[in-house]
Structures are given as structure tokens and as C-alpha cells.
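Supplementary material to the annual report.
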Amino acid sequence: MALVLNEEQSMLRDSARGLISDKAPVAHLRKLRDTNDTNGFSRDLWKTFAEMGFAGLLVPEDFGGSGLGAVEAGVVMEEIGRTLMPSPFLSTGVVAATALTRGGNAAQKSEYLTRLAKGDLIASLAVDEGAKHRPLKTAMQAVRAGNGFKLKGAKAFVVDGHAADLLIVAARTAGQPRERDGLTLFLVDPKAKGIEIERTAMVDAHNAARIAFNDVDVTADGVLGEVDQGAVLLEGILNVGRAAVASEMVGVSEESFTRTVTYLKERKQFGKLIGEFQALQHRAAHLYTEIEITKAAVMKALQALDSDFDKAGAAVAVAKAKAGSTATLAVQEAVQMHGGVGMTDAFDIGFFMKRARVCQELFGDAAYHAEQLARLKGY
Amino acid sequence: MADMEKFRSETRAWLAANCPPEMRKPVANENDVFWGGRNTTFASEPQRLWFERMRDKGWTVPEWPKEYGGGGLDAEETKILRQEMAAISARLPLSSFGIWMLGPALLKYGTEAQKREHLPKIAAGLIRWCQGYSEPNAGSDLASLQTRADIDGDDYIINGQKIWTSMANFADWIFCLVRTDFSAKKHDGISFILFDMASKGVSTKPILLISGKSPFCETFFDNVRVPRSHVVGTVNRGWDVAKYLLQHERSMISGLGDRSGSRPLGQVAANSVGVDEHGQLDDPMLRGQIATFDVDEAAMACASERAVDLAKAGQGHPAYSSALKYYGTELNKRRHELLMSAGGVDALEWESERSREGLAARSWLRTKANSIEGGTSEVMLGIVAKRILDLPGA
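Predicted assembly:
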């Protein structure tokens, strides 16, 4: 497969870019932040997104979606990264759609996927518990009770968890933290008794939640996939999420970089355009190279997910690690090269720095994924 | 698409049947690389067999047209062939500046007679080429070159000196930049010319490097007589040919990051420093550095692949190879720093059987030239800044 977009994918990119840059430029995020919006994203815009087929991009056609793949999801995520549009696309359209499509039984699929594709259902994956992403360290308990389970524990950094209509929760039905066996995924109604949701407005003005589960009852019908064998399913879902976030970071990196290069061509100091200084030219050229190399790695991972899902782990680890380092560099260079103005809240570039920091942590940072690669390579 | 799958399975089967097992191991020393040429000898029978079988398929230069000794494959087929070779760690059957650098330039700028004369001999490994570009005062500022070619009847008389001529002492022919017009602006008076290194007046002298080896030479021209028909492209427009060729040279050098044929760093380090009770490298800092390097190296391999796909899709930029040359060479230097860290004091032995005569150390030192030869990293960054990013002040 060629590492370039085909004609249909390019058309999808153009249509996503048109909609997103028109309806959700950075000013859109700024306004939601400044008005302390209840959701932190626009439900109207999410509806429009769904009408254009984006919400159901990964949902099979039988359930009202487009049945497309990771490459297409990545195309949309990259555009989201360019304007920092807050949206449930990642939590719902990518992660939850993958979870339900790959792990759901017939009843679960028909109950949730059609609504999801229509934009009527926001769903969110609850996996992290500590400050860092360590899915196998899941400690939350799911204790058998009658024909179902009781969930006890707490989750953090649940993206869009404050607005979710459905939670997908990783818990332990057996085993100890760090063990691979004994993980199970559950579909949980956030309104169920015993759930406490605390909205956490993040540094990037996107939203997540901390959620406490105090003996929450889940019936056997709420199990997604197989009991005790959830690790493989979870890893697959996370890999799609990771590649999607890597794509978003490509968008963040490219947009920060474009704005910076434009600034280098406009700003004068010492009687010269600052873009004439070799010190800045070389740093800009280095950053361009890092971004190009990152784009290739991310596209490789997306294609790997579409062509050989179960073997995409190494390519995804490379993509998420590389995209995390590159986005960090891109936003740091952007703020530095913009000088004092880059430090002001009134100027937009700081928004990119904040989003890059969150994307870096989301589903594992560069160090986590380099570590995964080392394990996969056996050293 | 079905055709491509058929091509892949046939190629895989052919390689499995024809690539000797000895040719599926990482290159261990210089003898393992076959360069061809008039005075060539094969280091081993498997090396000869592998070369001859590939040559007979036209697969020393798979993407060249068949009439010039190539395989006549399209870009997709060539990619598949390379992937299938990488999958079994097959060595290159023939290494050659004729293939990597001169060939593409001749295909684009050569006359039909020049193509028919030179390309099949490159493909068959009969003539080994070297490159006469740099001069003592024209390195990064290549267009300052002073080697002169003066017309004398149907010939040019060439006088001057080249430097950093890779393996000139083994080469049969040279592709060379000479000044044919001293009154023009410096880029506009240069011509690209080919001649036999056995010509009267050509001499070479190896340059000993910090690695203790001499891959490079100084090359001297003292009234060398060359027919005017040996100019490639238009007289005084040799800079166009030179630039085109440099793009290929940079792609080749950036490919140094492609390690499909060599042992993974993590494994080399594990053999040297050992592993802990979890099977992990017994040096967590080194392990982290190698892991970070592996991420960058894997990403670079994707970028090399994508560069080909971009060019094929008409989305490539002529200066893209400069970005990859910069990154690939910095990466290769990092790799060898890590190999030295992994090897510790063992890797420092300059002359011993255990260190294979200081192989790791000599290779490490050799890589320091990667970011100088073919245009320094700073020159590459300048090209990207000006030609791709369009930053001011050229």
C-alpha cells in the first residue's frame, strides 16, 4: 500500500477540512472555554458532524455507518488537530465505535451502534486509574454478584466522561494489577446507582472526568467481549485510539509549524526578517523534517491497523511515540520563535502547546511507547 | 492489484530458490560488498552466483528499461522486489555509484548513444565508476570548482584536482564536473563529462581517514584528453545534471538508516551487556536510548518508503531528499554511538581478533563523514529552509 492518501481519502480530507475550519476554528474552542460551556464542545456541531457521516465513519454499514477504516479516522483526526476542535469524535466515533464493533455481540451492536452513527449517543472509554497510562495496572474490581457484577473503584482521565451516555469500563474480574489475564470490559450506564462523575476541565480546555464506582451493578449483558480475556480486545481498541491521537498530533504539529513559518516571514528584528537568520532557518528545517518523518510513521500505523489489525502493535507504538516527541518539539519551537507574543493568552499558539501536552499523555506518552517497542523487540 | 500479488509470490519463490543462504546474512566486512569493475574478483562462490543470477534477471537495476540491462519493472514492482529481498535479509548483489548516481542522470540527460554505451555495463557490473565533484576549495560551495576543460579540436584537455573521490583508486571511469566557461557566472560555466580513469594524465592518491582507512582519494588531471562527445547534457549546463544526480546521491545516503540487513541494536547490546531477570537489557539508560533510537529509525524507514510513493503520486518535492539525507545521516551517527556504548571497552580495541580489527570503532568513525559527504547537514537544512519552506534571504 502506498503511503499517500488515495482519491477517496483526499476527498474525505477536503470535506472534513472545509467543515472544521469553517465551523470550528481555534476561536470556537476559545469561546467554549471563556463561556465555561457545560459540555466543553458544541452538541449542534457534533450533530452536523454526524449528518456528514463522520460520527459513524468506523461503524459498519449495517448499523448506519460508513464502514471505513483507521486511515479515514486518522484523516479526520488530523484536521481536528489543525483547529483544536473539541468534539466527541475520538471518544465516541473512534474508540467506542471500535470497541463496540470489535467486541460487541449482536444485541449490543444493534442497541448502540446505530445511535452512535446518528450522533445520538456519546460513549467514553474508562481505562486509566493513575497519573500515567498503564492499562495492565488496572486495579478496579468487578466482583461477581448473582448473575452479574459489582464494580468498585475509580477511573481518571475519562475523555468526555462528563457528557457520556455510555461508559466502556475496564475492570478486573480476576488476577492482580500488572497481569494480563483477568481483565474484562463492561458497558455501563453512567446514570446507574453508585456512580459519581466529576468533570475535569483540562489545561487544553477540553474535557474529561474522574469517575467513582461505588458498588455499581452491571448485569451479564453488560460484558463486552469475554470475561477475563479483555486484554487483547482492550489493546486493539487502544491501538486505534493511539493511532488516532497520533494523527491529531500530526495536525497540531503541522498547524503550529505553518503558523511559525508564516511568522518567520513577517516579523522583523535587527532590521531583518527573522526568517533570514540561519539559526532559525535550520531549526525550522529540522522541525519540517521531523514532521515529515512522523507523518510517514503515522500513516504506516493507520494502514497496518486496516490491513493486519492484530499485528499493528509495533507500528502503532512507533507512531504514537514519534508523534508525541514531534508535537512536543513543534509547539515548543512555535512558542519560542513567536517570542513574547507566543506567551500571551490572547494569541492562539499557546492553545496548541496545551493540546499537544494532553495528546502526549493520552493512551501513553512517547516513553511508554518506546518501552512497548523495546518489549516487542525483546530487549 | 491481483497482478501485484502474483508478482509478489513469484518474486518470493524466485528469491527463495536463487538467493544463496550465505547472501542472507548481514554484511560483516568490506569483502562482503561486491562493487564490480574491470579488475573485480568475487570474494566467494555464493557472492558470484547471487550476482550473476540477479544480473541475468536485470535485477541489479530492476527499474531500468530492459534495453539498457535493467529489469523493466515499474515503481510498484520494484518496491515489492525490495520488500521481498529485505524480508529474507538478502544482500545487494551489486553496489555501484553507477547504479545509484550516474545511471539516473544518464537516463534523464544522456544521448541514446551514451545510454547504450554505458548503462548496460553498469547493470552488468563491468565498469566501476567514481564521482569527481569536490575540489580542495569547492566542497560545500561546490559551484566554486576550478578544474578546467579547454577545447582542442574534437577534444577537451582537462587540468585540475578533485578531492574526496570515493574509491577512485579502484574505479574504471569517472563522472566529473569541469569548468568549460570561466567568464560565465559560477553555476553557468560548468559541464558534466565522462572519461576513462586509465587515460593518460590521471593519477590518484588515497587519503587516510580517522577510521584508519582510505575510502577516499585525491585525484589529479594533468592534460587529460577527452572527446567532446563525452559531455552529458548541454555544455555549460552541467549544473542541472549535477543537481539531479545529487538528489539521487542524497537518497542513497539517507538510506543508510535502512538497517534491514544488519543485527538489531537491542540484540547487539544484549549480547554485550547482558540481561536482567526479566530478560531486559542490564543497563536501563542504554535500553531507553536504544528504544528511542528504534522509534526514530522505524519512522525514518517509513519516510524513505513514503518518499518513493510521493514521487510516484506526483506529490514529491525535489528538495525532499535533502531533508531525508539530513535525518538519515544523523540517525546513522546516533546508531554507531549506541553501538560503541553497547560494545564498551571491547569495541575500543583497534587491532584484535576479538574486535575483528576494530570493526565497530572504524565503522563508528566512518559514519562521522555521513553528515559531511554529499552535502553537509547544514547545507541540507539550508536547502530545506529556502526551497521547501521558502524562508527569505537566499
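The mean pLDDT of chain B is 92.
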